[in-house]
């Protein structure tokens, strides 16, 4: 963070004045005496620095990179999302071997890879999926083209999510803008609001909290008016409500966020009375467990560890809860135990995370921050050294 502050031409006192964060917190973060900060604090610092939130989060890339050029896999994804402007259009070939059911199955597998942190494998598969979807969106009768546009929208949305995870928010927004355009020509009335939710997430990563909240609320209102009679509609509406609540929370309005989350949790209860989606992996992640996981996260971020642990205690994870969400839950439980001074409880949560989702654990700087805080604490419980070594060496 010190490098970003110096690039902005600010002293620690100047950054404190612009961000509203105390000089003491800034000093501790820069000296690594404080290894993590709550998201509202990071948003304030990003705003004061004029930087994207990702610059402070320090999310590691999903694949190794020299730092000089992007890896070839990412270049291929970028080219698939944004084809060259002046290249002659490719002649359609292989159309006879393409089918919408096969493409949708590949898309579902792609989302599974994403939620399992298989970013390297996903980067290898995604260019072909996008290319095939773009082809299906351009051939056949009107109904077939509309179905192809729906597949293209989901493929580009997946590209947007992957780009966010790689810290490439501008690429993500380019992919999501194209996904939204495809949704407008598709046969899926829920695709545009799902893409809107993804855009809101990208805005959150750029500290554009007002934009994220307004977009999520607008899209949720549209879904509520027309599409909440199905499980798919409830899941999309609930995901948007959670997104809006997260933006409120990160704007330091925890009470409004909590009210919205409680409403979302009630809505999730309706899913048990509705027929499940035909292909749940292509619909927004939303269930009672996902809402409760997000409530735990917000409580931790707002320094309410006791409330977070109480919420976590009542969670019953559904079978379709992705590894990425399970990761967040265990990380937040570990953080809450750390904040309560319960180092053994934190280590137990991190050990569970290592068993459940080792790939995701390596992709979260929060895991490193928690282990660092525990290592520098008054006691080092059994198991902590192995966790430190797993994440890059004992501290």
What would you note in describing this structure?
It is built from 21 helices and no strands. It has 395 residues and is mainly alpha-helical.
Give a short overview.
By secondary structure, this protein is mainly α.
Key structural traits:
0% strand; single chain; globular; 395 residues; mainly alpha; 21 helices
CA(first)-CA(last) distance:
20 Å
- Largest sheet data: none
Radius of gyration: 22 Å
Which residue ranges are poorly predicted, with pLDDT under 50 across at least 5 consecutive positions?
59-66
Q: Please count the helical segments.
A: 21
What is the secondary structure topology, with strand pairs?
Blueprint: H1 2-7, H2 12-19, H3 23-30, H4 39-49, H5 53-57, H6 72-81, H7 100-115, H8 119-136, H9 142-165, H10 169-184, H11 191-205, H12 209-226, H13 231-250, H14 254-268, H15 288-301, H16 305-313, H17 323-339, H18 343-356, H19 358-362, H20 365-375, H21 384-390
Helix pairs in contact: 2-4, 6-8, 7-8, 7-9, 8-9, 9-10, 9-11, 10-11, 11-12, 11-13, 12-13, 13-14, 14-15, 15-16, 15-17, 16-17, 17-18, 17-20, 18-20, 20-21
